[in-house]
Predict the structure.
Amino acid sequence: MEVGCGSGYVITSLALMLAPLPNGVYYIATDISPHALRVTGETLEAHGLQAELVNTDIASGLEKHLAGLVDVLVVNPPYVPTPENEVGCEGIASAWAGGYNGRTLIDRILPFAAAFLSPRGCLYMVTLTANDPCDICLQMRKLGFASRIVLQRSTEEESLHIIKFWRDPEIVQLDAKQLFTAKKSVSPRLMVPQFPRLPLWKNL
């Protein structure tokens, strides 16, 4: 599944990569722009591929149908820091306008990803250094996901990262244990537990 498919290049590339798999794969691509969906359809068709194309904001309306069922979710969001009034504007600028710190849409996508991914599912997201990838990983950690940077590319103008997220039961267990320990040791007058710092990245 791809959220914000744009030209369809990413979902098409993913489908070509997974084509050798013996079992059938069902592809879904969403975009708020009808024009983007038309272009995505043309890109897929040019490579002899098909996907369900859904005109929606991120993945609104698909929660009941896809909750816990998506094995691979790819997102190349609008991540460029811009004024908030440029987010979702008409025209090509909507493809990159990400609002404050480039996080306006990214922060909205994270809960959808957590809800849609299957127990073995993975999210691959493109981010910019200005998006504060470390904080994005912290937000996903709160939802029970481990993460690591799988690819990084830098130019004179920007530094891009592709971050992989996956469910990690150990994170949930550790955080629950830390909370229990903190509650036992905290002073009755100070009800703000101090948590030990844990590593964000996990090597596969």
